[in-house]
Task: inverse folding
């Protein structure tokens, strides 16, 4: 038998549960632009479709300072506090 | 010498266990079969056992595994010969050579202790045993025995055995989870299956190898060097050492790997973004200072290529730490559209002695005698810049500028993006033939030759990316780089060949990555 030492951080990632689906689109939806080129175009179109097809949803727009770094904690917390749903746009 | 030697329970040649301590006095002798001096002592030990064995335990602890039997038969030994093939007992008792004799009273206190064969020591022992047991003196022909013969080194002090025992002992600095791989499993395949590998075979990080690797740094194995994105895994010195073993590093490379991990895990360098970007960036490491020679790094012929263990494995170890401790694997957070081979490894040293300029680390504020690692986030390279004909300094400097036009796309101008230029010795010589040609002059020359009217880079039918047309119709001229600050220059390569090379950057600056230098802690 060979023994080796674990090269990883020895932490299994937490299994995240998908939020329960209600079947309704209500509340506040955040649209997060990660600052990639043309992300705004995609989100503009999404916002147009949402206001047409889900008029009960309130849309709030957010923008990450840069797509190249993780979302700052303050922005993440703001989205968590204000929104029921969020769509993050990856575009180019 | 201490009262209360460590306990043991060892099997004799028939598989029967013998424990220490007992309530009787004990004569314990460590031996190994291929030791001349142990073979000299064996008949004496047998005589002592025959004479005093009724009142004291006489135990031999032998380190020779299967050969223990041959040793016992050769000398017709009647006392228990205990198997200490793993040398664990020898390690715990702290002996240095064999034969190593312990004469211990019934309370466990050492009465006498000696090593090797100094005849008078053994004669004194025999006399002492006679007194203790009140039995007749053992019949031993002392005159036929050598007066003095040194012992052999105990097997447990062989580096292979010793490091394993240290790793397993109580108080071992090893804290990482131990993974036992069944003998029916292939260790190499197991490591691939676990996702530990970058795609190439790994050296199994056994506890003994990791112990040896940890010997390369003065730092405590549990020191936290960095938290590694994306999972923010904690990179202790030990975890870095494990990955350095897997990469194939020697212990003396470990301080370089530690400094590199520290450098890439800064907010400035942003290894998360460097790893995640679809553009396919990778850290490029440049090593400066005395460590280059000390660990045999390549800065000359083929410096940017394969063949040098330090260059290859230090760069690889950094990548494995990001993969295994940080949790960045291809298809997970690692999202490169195409990837690039620098994601395996890219590390080289600057040939400071061949450079007419201040070395990279000195430019960045360190002392020449400091050993320093500098990391750049690069998406492409090395891209060769070929000029075998220019004979004038400005011509060569100009060619180096033209060679950088391809960063991202030739039509992209005034780029706020790093480039790392590696100038070869022959190009240096041409540049210097009329006297000093400073790095700054070379940077200015690069900006000068790459200056073009902005109209060359306008978006039109043939070019969908570039610089938008000026609404007022002006066509200013712009250089390749937004500033000379983005042009980094080092010297490396063989004496022969007019081929310099360049690495092309990623998103440079606070929104992406800024190059970082860290001093290597050599203790």
Result:
């Amino acid at each position: 038998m060979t023994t080796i030492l674990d090269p990883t951080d020895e932490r299994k990632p937490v299994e995240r549960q998908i939020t329960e689906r209600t079947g309704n689109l209500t509340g506040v939806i955040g649209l997060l632009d990660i600052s990639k080129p043309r992300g705004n175009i995609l989100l503009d179109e999404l916002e147009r479709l949402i206001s047409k097809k889900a008029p009960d949803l309130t849309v709030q727009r957010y923008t990450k300072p840069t797509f190249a770094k993780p979302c700052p904690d303050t922005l993440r917390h703001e989205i968590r506090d204000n929104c029921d749903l969020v769509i993050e746009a990856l575009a180019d | 010498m201490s009262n209360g030697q460590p306990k043991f329970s060892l099997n004799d040649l028939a598989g029967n266990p013998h424990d220490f301590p007992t309530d009787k006095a004990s004569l314990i002798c460590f031996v190994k079969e291929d030791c001349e001096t142990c073979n000299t002592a064996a008949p004496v030990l047998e005589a002592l056992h025959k004479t005093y064995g009724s009142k004291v335990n006489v135990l031999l602890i032998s380190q020779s595994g299967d050969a223990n039997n041959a040793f016992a038969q050769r000398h017709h030994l009647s006392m228990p010969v205990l198997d200490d093939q793993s040398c664990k007992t020898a390690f715990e008792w702290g002996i240095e050579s064999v034969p190593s004799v312990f004469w211990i009273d019934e309370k466990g206190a050492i009465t006498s202790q000696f090593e090797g064969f100094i005849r008078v020591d053994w004669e004194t022992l025999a006399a002492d045993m006679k007194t203790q047991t009140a039995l007749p003196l053992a019949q031993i022909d002392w005159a036929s025995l050598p007066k003095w013969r040194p012992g052999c080194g105990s097997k447990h002090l062989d580096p292979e055995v010793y490091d394993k025992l240290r790793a397993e002992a109580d108080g071992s600095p090893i804290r990482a989870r131990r993974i036992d791989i069944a003998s029916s499993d292939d260790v190499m395949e197991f490591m691939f299956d676990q996702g530990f590998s970058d795609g190439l075979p790994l050296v199994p990080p056994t506890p003994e190898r990791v112990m040896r690797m940890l010997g390369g740094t003065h730092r405590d194995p549990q020191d936290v060097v960095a938290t590694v994105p994306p999972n923010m895994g904690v990179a202790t010195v030990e975890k870095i050492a494990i990955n350095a073993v897997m990469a194939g590093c020697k212990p003396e490379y470990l301080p370089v790997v530690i400094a590199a991990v520290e450098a890439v895990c800064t907010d400035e360098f942003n290894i998360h973004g460097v790893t995640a970007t679809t553009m396919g960036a990778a850290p490029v490491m440049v090593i400066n200072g005395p460590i280059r020679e000390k660990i045999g790094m390549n800065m000359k012929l083929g410096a940017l290529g394969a063949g040098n263990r330090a260059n290859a494995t230090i760069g690889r170890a950094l990548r494995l730490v990001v993969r295994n401790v940080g949790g960045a694997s291809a298809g997970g957070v690692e999202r490169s559209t195409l990837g690039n081979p620098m994601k395996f490894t890219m590390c080289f040293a600057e040939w400071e002695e061949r450079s007419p300029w201040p070395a990279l680390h000195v430019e960045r504020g360190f002392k020449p005698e400091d050993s320093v690692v500098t990391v750049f986030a690069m998406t492409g390279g090395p891209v060769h810049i070929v000029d075998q004909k220019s004979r004038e300094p400005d011509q060569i400097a100009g060619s180096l500028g033209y060679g950088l036009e391809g960063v991202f796309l030739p039509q992209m101008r005034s780029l706020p993006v790093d480039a790392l230029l590696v100038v070869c010795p022959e190009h240096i010589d041409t540049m210097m033939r009329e006297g000093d040609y400073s790095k700054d002059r070379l940077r200015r020359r690069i900006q000068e030759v790459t200056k073009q009217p902005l109209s060359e880079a306008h978006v039109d039918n043939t070019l969908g990316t570039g610089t938008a047309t000026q609404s007022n119709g002006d066509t200013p001229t712009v250089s390749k780089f937004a500033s000379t600050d983005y042009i980094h220059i080092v010297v490396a390569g063989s004496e022969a060949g007019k081929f310099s090379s360049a690495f092309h950057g990623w998103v440079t600056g606070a929104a992406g990555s800024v190059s970082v230098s860290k001093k290597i802690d050599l203790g």
